[in-house]
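Translate sequence into structure tokens.
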Amino acid sequence: MSPGTCEQSSDANERTDLAGRLRAVVPTVIPTIIPALKEVSEAFRRPPVEVIVGIVEDYISSLADSIGCDSLEPMEAFLDRVEPHWAPSGLGVSHVMHGLFVINDACWDQVRQPGDDPQLFQWWGREAMRMVAEGSVAAINRKLAGELERHRVIEERLVSLQRVSATVLSEVDLESMLQTIVDEAMKLIGASAAAIRLVDRESTNLRIIALTGERDSLLSRDAMPVHGSLAGYSFRSGEPVISNHIAEDTRLSRELREASKLRSLLIVPLIVREAAIGALLVSDRLRGSFTHEDQRLLSLFADQAATAIEHAQLYRQAQHQIAELAALHRISNVISSSLEIEDVFTAIYHEIRQVMTTDAFLIGLARPDGLFDIDFIIDGGQRFAPRHAFDLSSPMARARHERRAVIISDIHAEGVPPVHTVGHPQTRVRSIVTAPLLKGNEVVGLLSAQSYKPDTYQEGDAQLLMTIANHAVVAVEHARLFRQAQSLAVAEERNRLAREIHDTLAQGLIATILYLERLDLKVSDADESTRQLVDRALMLTRDNLEEARRSVHDLRAAPLEGRTLLEALHHLVDDLREEGLFSVDLRAPMSLPLFAALVETALFRIVQEAISNCRKHADCSAIVLDVALDDNTLSLCVTDNGCGFDVAEARERPERFGLSSMFERVTQIGGTLDIQSKLGEGTTVSVRIPLERATHSDLA
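Result follows.
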């Protein structure tokens, strides 16, 4: 027998009646069916009774609906509703079929009436059992397929974890290894971003060390407190943390929840020998991205990563210690091999640069008056001229007063006194470590390494710099004494030459002047030609006497001895103001790069010659001396408001030796000289020289 459609009426009444009776017996048949099902299988006892009752009622009602409308669609709908119960129930197909026999037999016993055709109910019962059997088999197959896929994914992830762990453990460079960890963690979990935070023991913050993927404030924020953050909780407790809805997770600050574009977050601690060193974080743009399986996998990876980080840190420490010992050895060699203070300073700088950050660096020597001569200054790879009689900033003076290495984590931090600039006027220095040079208990100088980033230096850097300073002080003291001895010898030789010039040449010129003056008195007024020759000889002799006296003064004063070009120019201007012949204005920057000795001498002599010409010929009342740096060029100008002269005509006159010497000096140092002058409008002498030709370039 086969069923007809809902429109056919031959047996419609019979089916409708059977369906109605089947629905009516549901309340009475349930108490009989439930105990019988529990006898069939233990699986029927696991779910709550109300769940089993609901499924049985739904089955009977769906069977009645299928019979009543002559369609299997109600039963198909029942199978869709009951499918979620297959996986957790643990029922096998045989148990399901046995249970359906129990339900169908109990229902037929309750609805059967005299004259009923049993084949009608039996046919629908068999069809229902067939559909349920097929559905249960399909559900079990899907469950098995899901389990198989899950195991396949787990196997792939474990293989990937093994590969990643091998890669991480084989890397010894800390920065490269940290970047590898975050890159592989992001790929391993399939996240949008990943980061590593390691604990800063001094500030008790978790600082960002490595970051990959999408940039977001949730991960890229520089420091997270150990107390008061999810990463901090994972670090302190040693437990993983999952947040699958960041926007509504009250454990995160409102600021982060609102600013973050990421929606899911997974954090696992990095633990080495039962001590946490930081946290590994992955995040994703989708909500609900991370499962407990992801957590277990990332935790396994984090265990490998933490061990690798420790090994890399130990390797770096070992390499650092080797570099420190090598640097100390080389500095010791300098102590025994060189007495030139510039060589000693340069060697100290190069060795310290190899073991710590030195965006800027300085060496200062103490003076008897309590101030410092900052003799060696590097800023951004550029050597700057020394600064003499310098009063140390209070943060750096601490190293002198406390006789130990001192760290300034950030000169812009609140409460840190101002730090005076000694290098580039727009220096970017943010953090400083300074160590004193101790000779016994006396501070004879200091070393200072400086960084453009805040929080660069740790206590280990301070200890290392102090160790280097203790070794370097011997070389610095020997070199300083040697320089003092050289300076004394040079000064003595200059004084000897000055005495010789004064006692011989100058005295001879004075005698010549006296004889010429006596000759001038004896020449008659009528002998005009002879008088002109005598007057000319007197003028030349007096000029030469003045030059001899100026040479004696220069030899004794040695304008550039122990001074930078800028300091020598200030000294020259002070002397001119004391003379009172004209007003002098010096316009110059606060600091200049360190120029080669030949360049400084040439520039200073050109300025001297220009001012000497003003004194002799210009009849001026004011001089302006301009020193400027622009476009990597040093420019130096001497301008007067005197009578001016014809430059072309003056250069052709052989007796104008001063102009020729200025052009020769500028040519020797690779610069250009320009003289602008007009009668009655004053004169400007301009020198320009490229910095790369003028400065010490060996440290750049």
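Note: The longest helix spans residues 459-522.
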